[in-house]
Design goal:
Blueprint (H helix, E strand, L loop, with lengths): L5 E8 L5 E6 L2 E7 L14 E6 L10 E8 L2 E4 L4 H14 L5 E8 L2 E9 L3 E10 L1 E3 L2 E4 L5 H15 L3 E8 L7 E4 L5 H12 L3 E10 L2 E8 L9 H4 L7
Length: 244
Amino acid sequence: MQYERMVKGFFLSRPNRFIAYVDLNGVRTICHVRNTGRCAELLKPGATVYMQEALPGTVRKTRFDLIAVEKGSVLVNMDSQAPNQIAWEYLQQLYGGSDSCIEREVVYGQSRLDFRIRLPGNQHMLIEVKGVTLEHNGIAAFPDAPTERGVRHLRELEHSVGEGYKAMLLFIVQMQGVVHCVVPNDITHRAFGDALRAAVQHGVMVRALDCFVTPESITPRQMIPVKLDGIPEEFFMRGMNFSK
């Protein structure tokens, strides 16, 4: 996934979920935040951010979209629209050359799931994608805020297995080379972690894919482990608060 017309600035503040103020060449500039999550550990005053400028002539409230942020030496893509595109590119690599067919935005039960893949032998696999931007000491956690929608998606996937589908939850880790594993964030939303573990017990596959990230791009990299036992207890001792 490629971005064009990228500019660099410095984060100032975020008055609500949708907008942020950024220092762009010394000018306080408003921009749209492409992530409604909390992102408190990322968007800190003075952090270096990268924004995409809208095409000339585009009618919109803000001229820029906030796409990525530097967290220390790590560049994190926080565009919530990116994970589905990354998953699409990755699934095309896996299944695009076969007789299978990949459908997007598929209604199942009470949910709209991200993908349905028609596999050989008339089998189908449902896939739901979740983007991950919360990380500490090499461990990434999801979610960064309570997500009843995520719990519902897991229950839909679990139900689909009982109807003969294959099913997968795919975490897209939106940073490169620093994450050793992904865990459910039981501190922020225990119900999601419990639903994830129950889904796995009933046959839902859980996978995590990290990415190559630059200010102008994010592309699939490699699979990394998912550990279902949650956030290690030593995080409390290191001062990382995963509930905010």
